[in-house]
Write a structure and sequence with these properties.
403 residues; mainly alpha
Amino acid sequence: MATQTADLPRQTGAPRPGPGPSRISSIDMVRGVVVVLMAIDHVRVYSGLPPGGPTPGIFFTRWITHFVAPGFVFFAGTAAYLHGRKLSSRSALSKFLWTRGLWLVFLEMTVIRIAWTFNFDFSHYLLAGVIWMIGWCMVLMAAAVWLPTTAVGVIGVTIVALHNLTDVFRGAIAHAFGSGGPNWLLKVLYFGGAIELGNSGPPLLILFVIVPWIGVMMAGYWFGQVMEMPAERRRALCLRLGLALTTLFVALRALDVYGDPRPWSRNHTLLGFLGTSKYPASLSFLLMTLGPLLILLALSERWKGKSAEIAATFGRVPMFYYLLHIPLIHVAACIVSLIREGRINPWLFGNHPLAPPPVPPGYTWSLSLLYLVFALCVTALYFPCRWYARQRASRRSVWLSYL
């Protein structure tokens, strides 16, 4: 280990020993905004309102939350790079990534699964959601960090830019699969869908696939070098890069020849223009979300006051927030049901969010009720998140880094 550590400064893109960069508050602020937005969509799940329509209000309630997954994944890559600068070796970073990644997969299959459903019917339903995807991407990053940082970034950007070529060759791909469809590995990597776990096992429903998200995390890892620059320089670069990606989204979507499997020409409205594909995340979807997030990151370099402090508090403990917010929202939905119906509707114990039973007649909430519950839940979450952020800041514990 001593020899490996001594050689690190001469290895391009390797984490270097030493104290590393101090915590960058702008990343925490943007990540805090992202996790707060996430709660909107998860309240929507229990409200019974459909994703993405049919009214503009419901569409934008869903659309604003599209920034969540790209922000989570991209800044997870950036955090991995910055964390590696504090460690003694590339080996230490690799170990941290694969152990934390497997821990996240375990949480998705157990704690988070129960929080979504409040039932223990594991024989009929398992969901591979965003935490599953982030976990496996971290496992893959554990191998990728042995490459030079620039190589990691170039590979990641290439994956993001080119994966929609599958749309061009969709007919040939479907013919190659035949009537059986893609195998389990291809479903996990790109195509999604249900995987039967043996003759008597539960179906594993793949919502978030690995590609292109691994590319987003690799690009975020490369972006970590930008966050080491002096504040004004990185602010200017983030602003230019964010504007460039947003402009590229507008141009690509207007041309309507590549970047998303749902052509805008079929629906020439603003909603059609913004209605890009999330499963799997298209190039247009990622440009549409990552561009504004980088602009927000640039602006947050000068964000001050109580609102900045609140956002940064949430952003310092995103996984802790995630583990709390789903059961809290679920409990809140049960309370709303009890008040409105005089009972807790059994629908709330169905298999949410990917394969819920049909919404009962008369159950669906109004948008105003959705946002009221959202605001109350986020307010309640602030206090435990503030406590936990202080615990992490005051204690040197490896275990605390896993939440």
